[in-house]
Structure formats: structure tokens, C-alpha cells
Amino acid sequence: MSEEKALIQAICQEPGDDVHRLIYADWLEDRGGPGDTSRAEFIRLQCALASGRDPDGTPVTREQRERLAARQSELLKQHKSEWEEPLRQLGATTVTFTRGFPEKVKISADDFIKHMSNIRAICPVQSAIIVNCQDIEALAASPHLTNLTSLGLWSNGISAAGAQALAASPHLANLTCLNLWDNGISDAGAQALAVSPHLANLTRLDLGYNRIGDAGARALAASRHLAKLTSLDLGRNGISDAGAQALAASPHLANLTSLYLGYNGIGDAGVRALASSSHLGNLTSLGLRFNRIGDAGTRALAGSPHLANLTSLDLGYNGIGDGGARALAASPHLAKLTSLDLGGNGIGKESLRAVERRLGSRRGNATGR
After folding, report:
1. N or C terminus: fewer CB in 10 A for the chain?
2. Distance CA 7, CA 1 (A)
3. How is residue 251 annotated by DSSP?
4. Structural domains of the chain in order of their starting residue, each with its CATH number
């Protein structure tokens, strides 16, 4: 094995350790071949941007960060095509660099299965967006999934059977992020994911637009394997009050900081359950746009001490009137809000102004009609 291959192998085996990356940057600079100096510089500056410290361990100032970011963009503009070419030859159509190396690729399922071992031999890819997946069972059986911490499979039409194949795969045990948006997995697919011990390391799960319904929501809420989740997206799933109540009652979702339930059928009863849940006290972002929430549900949100950590609240396009807006404006629990969306509701100008006054200088977004 050549010296360069040994250095890259060390990076791939310990992708979280910047020491190997910086050693490789030094090696490139010493070699001094065409483009080596630029690549070494790029590795060092991306590591510094990611860690907030320069190679000597000194904290990077805001001004230095701006300069590093500008230089990063300049180097990518000059060399991106050259640095991506080896991966493009192996089927990658999009490549994202992190800490000096390709870490995320967009690739077809067939090319992932055929070429991922070669890709991993030259860079520490840990995140993949899979497209054109015609055989989800073959993908789920691929041992190359073991090296991933993030997997995106949105809009591949994998259905419930595909979700079941993924749930049964031991190769997904290292995943922390899984995105299955728009795959028609239904409640059966959600139930399979919920009972899978192989998904116990997930911290982010996106199941939006999958028709999982209340049955799927209940299965996820009951899952002890999903207790590490910090972000859960269940938008556009036909979830009603019953599903929201199940989620609110789940002790397994206590680590959530972001919960998105937009474009469902949740009314005041479901929102009252969310507002009264002591398990949701870590939420900083709650998305409830395009539901059936009225003033009663909004008052429940405004009066909830469990939602005191919210910085972002989306209540757009519900049935909220002046009473609900005034309750939000008077809430002693929403002091951390920096973003509040009330667009598409029947709220008068005076009530909106009261909300704006309440948010004051913290208002990042407080929209009304």
C-alpha cells in the first residue's frame, strides 16, 4: 500500500478525527505536486471552519471565519470539478465537501451498490442521497450502508415493503439521520420502522408525505428504539387529534427539539395534548401550519409552561382569530420566541400589532394575513 493510500485509509477509518486529515494536508504540501498546495490549504481551512479553531488550537475569530469562508469558496470554484471527478466516474452526481474531503454524495442505487467500496477507498463519505432506487431490497442488503450516518431516500416510491426491508437491515445501525419523505410507506411502513432495533441511533427522522395516519403516529410514539430522536418530521400524513395525542403522551420522544406536524388534520384537542405534554419540554421548534387549530388550541399553546423553550412556532393557515393572537401576545411562556408565523389566519391588525409588540426586538418573523 502506498503512503498516500495509507493516509486516506486512516481518514476513512476514523472520519471524526481531524488529526489524520491535517497529517494528509502536510503530506500533500511536502509532496508539492500540481494542485497539492491548494488541496492542503482547503483541508486545513475547512477543518478550522468546522472546529472553530486553527491547526494550533487557537479559536477562530469572527473576522477570521469570514476570511476562511471566502477563501474556501474561492478554492472550490477553482478546483471543485477536478476534486469531484474521481467520484463522478463512479456515479456520484452531486458531491459535498466537509472538513476537506467529500462527505456527502448523490448517487443512484445501482451505482451505490456497485461502486461504494471504491468511493470509500478514496474519501470518507458518510452521507448518501439515493435516487432511482428500483430494488430497495438489494439496497437494504448492501453492506456499504454500514459506513453511513445519513441516508436520504426521498421520492423513490419504496412503499411499505421498502420501509420494511430497510427496517430489517442490520446495515443501518450507524445511521443518525434517515429521510424517507414522499415514499408512500403508509402506517405499515411506519410500524416496521418503529419496531426496528437497527434504527436505535437515529436522531433525525423525516417521514413527511407518507400517509402514515394516526396508526403510524401511534407506532412511532410507542417506539423505545427512537428515544434518541431530536428532530421528527411527520408533515402531510393525515394525522388527526388521535395521532397528536399519542405523540404527546410518549415518554420516548422527550429528546425532541424539533417537531413538524404541518399539513395534517390536527385540531384543538390534539394541540391541547401537545401543549400539556411534559415530554415535549425540550422543543425549540414546533410546526403546525395548515391544520385545524382555533383560538382554543392557540390559548393552550400560549398557556403551556412546557413550551417555554420554543424559539420558532409556525401556526400559519389555521383557524386562529383575534382571541388566539391576543393569548400569544400575553403569554408569559413564549419569551424565547424569535420566529412566529400566523399567516393565513383571520387575525385583525390590532391583534397582530399586539403580537409584534410582545416579540419586540426578538422578532425574526411575525407574519399575519
Report:
1. N
2. 10
3. G
4. 3-85 (no CATH), 87-367 (3.80.10.10)
* Residues with Cβ within 8 Å of residue 131, at least 6 apart in sequence: 93, 106, 107, 108, 109, 156
Other beta carbons within 10 angstroms of residue 271's beta carbon come to: 30
- pTM, two decimals, is 0.96
Residue 16's φ and ψ, nearest 5 degrees, are: -85, -5
* Number of C-beta neighbours around residue 323 at 10 A: 14
Q: Are 188 and 164 in contact (CB under 8 A)?
A: yes
Instruction: State the virtual CA torsion across 264, 193, 98, 68 in degrees, nearest 10.
Output: 30
3-class SS of residue 107 = strand
Distances (CA, A) of 61 to 41, 65, 80, 271: 18, 6, 27, 43
Cross-strand partners of 97? 102
The strand order across the sheet containing 101-108 reads 94-98, 101-108, 127-131, 150-152, 177-179, 204-206, 231-233, 258-260, 285-287, 312-314, 339-341, 365-367
Backbone angles phi, psi at 54, to 5 degrees: -80, 175
Mean pLDDT for the stretch of residues 118-137:
97
Please give the Cα distance from 110 to 131 (Å, whole number).
Answer: 9
CA 305 and chain centroid, separation? 26
**In 3D, which of 293, 305, 226, 223 has the Cα closest to residue 261?**
293
DSSP 8-state class, residue 58: P
| pLDDT tens-place string over residues 185-227 | 999 999 999 999 999 999 999 999 999 999 999 999 999 999 9
